[in-house]
Design goal:
The complex is a heterodimer of chains A (188) and B (329). Chain A is mainly alpha-helical and 188 residues long. Chain A has eight helices and three strands, in the order ββαααβααααα. Helix content of chain A is 48%, strand content 6%. In chain A, helix 4 packs across helix 5 (114-124) and helix 5 (114-124) packs antiparallel against helix 6. The N and C termini of chain A lie far apart (70 Å). Chain B has 329 residues and is α/β, with parallel strands linked by helices. Chain B has a domain at 47-275: Alpha-Beta Horseshoe (Leucine-rich repeat, LRR (right-handed beta-alpha superhelix)), CATH 3.80.10. In chain B, strand 6 (130-133), helix 5 (139-147) and strand 7 form a beta-alpha-beta unit. The radius of gyration of chain B is 24 Å and the shape is elongated. The chains are: A mainly alpha (188), B alpha/beta (329).
Chain lengths: 188, 329
């Protein structure tokens, strides 16, 4: 299976774009489900590809939807950006029914999307893809000094942590004082 | 492109940490106190029990290594003398970072070594498993015995060609005080007339090379190991018959494998009749079990000897080798 079309509206779900891999049709017709992200673009994905996601697999395993029902009830993932969901769907399609290799060359290359991809993959519980993504994150700091790691992983310095802690305490103090004053006002 | 690792869910953060190499984790722990606490907490909850932490104090080289299963060792932290640092004005115990691992530069050799061991063992919540030292590292035996309840797994007293010999007293002290549950490696330089009258073991493996001239038959009877491999032996044939006699009545009862390579040609005459040794043509396979490095061998023919309790052993010998394999049930 290949990637789905991008930018189609929810009324017209994107279809898989490649022909079946062999002429011999499977005995049992493959079932498809539909998912959409924040951008409402609906992706048609086979149940086989969705098996990678423990979350979705759990959701669909007992539904017994007909094609029409599945089309009418796409799974909404409002917390996932459309382009990220597209990457995930592509990956699931590429790895449908295949054993996952130890090193994956089909990983999305856009590093600026890695954080969002990690969150989405973690949410969708796609273990292999999460491991691949985490490997990329781990590789970022190979041979780097603590200062460089701080920049790459956006780790605050001790001084910044201290300042943030003070600020948080101050804010908590103010909030507590506000609540006390409000409670006193209510009592009057 | 930066990746805000601390904003990831706990499960993701744990996965990333588990994919880092030990030296990368140690380096990362110096990013901030907060990250160090977080890493420490990760390893305190998921103790990397398969990792083996080694302290090395050999020559001018003092470092901590970690062995992961099926991997080579990784040096995770090093201590060097401050004189190795260019320039004149340096802070005491100055910390620098190489691309591979952090290095502490200190005036006090022992302090530097202790600091790196303390830091790494605390971070990973690991005890020191192995100690590899030359004559200058003997101090570490007592230091480790006092700092952790768990006995060392492995100890290596290594030959250092910069020093002619250990010296009788130092070697005697090391042998008497070294405790390890799995391995003893002794690649020593000692005086020709050095003798040791104490015990060694119990542990699984003893390897002494290249020179084992100081090992007497009395030592061999007192060594408590499963596998013993020594080279440069000066033990005589008649001494070996005494050893076999003692073995038959229950001495060295854990012994499964003994290999003695002789310094000089040794003539094996007829064994005394009371040993009830018989020739055999049997070909048998045996395994020397060393964690992570089990090896299978074959022993062909030779002599068969039986202990009073029925346990048998096969002996092979030639001019420079005495090999004994015990067939424990």
């Amino acid at each position: 299976m290949s990637s789905t079309e991008q930018g189609t509206s929810s009324a017209a779900p994107a279809e898989p774009t490649t022909a079946p891999e062999s002429a011999a049709a499977p005995e049992v017709p493959e079932s498809f489900y539909y998912v959409h992200g924040k951008d409402k673009v609906v992706h048609k994905v086979s149940a086989g590809a969705l098996q990678h996601s423990a979350l979705i697999h759990g959701m669909i395993s007992n539904l017994g939807y007909t094609e029409e029902q599945a089309k009418a009830n796409p799974f909404p993932f409002e917390n996932i950006d459309g382009d990220i969901l597209q990457m995930v769907v592509d990956w699931c399609n590429q790895h449908k029914g295949k054993p996952t290799p130890p090193e994956d060359t089909n990983l999305p290359k856009q590093k600026e999307k890695l954080f969002d991809l990690v969150l989405a993959v973690n949410y969708l519980e796609i273990k292999e893809l999460l491991t691949y993504c985490c490997k990329q994150v781990a590789m970022m700091v190979k041979g780097k000094s603590p200062e460089e790691i701080r920049e790459i992983w956006m780790i605050p310095t001790d001084a910044e942590d201290e300042a943030a802690e003070k600020e948080a305490k101050k804010r908590a103090g103010k909030e507590a004082a506000g609540e006390t004053a409000a409670a006193a006002g209510d009592a009057k | 492109m930066p990746f805000p690792i601390l904003s990831t869910p706990h499960v993701v953060l744990s996965e990333i940490i588990s994919l880092l190499e030990p030296n990368e984790i140690v380096t990362a722990s110096f990013c901030s106190e907060n990250l160090r606490r977080l890493l420490k907490s990760h390893f305190h909850q998921r103790k990397p029990s398969k990792w083996r932490l080694y302290m090395v104090d050999y020559d001018s080289n003092r470092h901590v290594e970690i062995f992961k299963p099926i991997r080579n060792s990784t040096t995770v932290m090093m201590a060097k003398n401050i004189s190795e640092l260019a320039g004149t004005a340096h802070r005491p115990n100055e910390l620098r970072f190489s691309p591979e691992f952090p290095v502490i530069y200190s005036e006090d050799r022992l302090l530097g070594a202790k600091m790196i061991v303390d830091y790494v063992t605390d971070l990973f919540k690991l005890d020191v498993y192995g100690l590899c030292i030359d004559i200058n590292g003997i101090w570490a035996i007592d230091w480790i015995n006092n700092r952790q309840e768990k006995m060392l797994g492995s100890i290596a007293l290594s030959k250092n060609s910069n020093y002619n010999w250990y010296g009788d007293e130092i070697m005697d002290y090391a042998l008497r005080n070294a405790r390890a549950s799995d391995w003893f490696y002794i690649t020593d330089n000692v005086f020709d007339n050095f003798r040791y009258n104490g015990k060694l073991g119990p542990a699984d493996h003893l390897v002494i090379n290249p020179s084992n001239h100081w090992v007497t038959i009395g030592n061999l009877m007192n060594f408590d190991f499963i596998n013993i491999s020594v080279s440069g032996s000066r033990i005589s044939f008649s001494d070996l018959t005494s050893f076999l006699r003692q073995w038959r009545v229950g001495g060295s009862h854990r012994l499964a494998y003994l290999s003695l390579e002789f310094e000089l040609d040794t003539i094996f005459e007829n064994f005394d009749e009371d040993l009830e040794i018989v020739e055999t043509t049997e070909v048998r396979k045996y395994r020397v079990e060393a964690e992570g490095d089990d090896s299978d061998y074959e022993i062909q023919g030779g002599y068969s000897i039986q202990r009073m309790d029925g346990v048998k052993a096969t002996i092979n010998c030639d001019l420079r080798l005495f090999l004994m394999v015990v067939w424990h049930a």
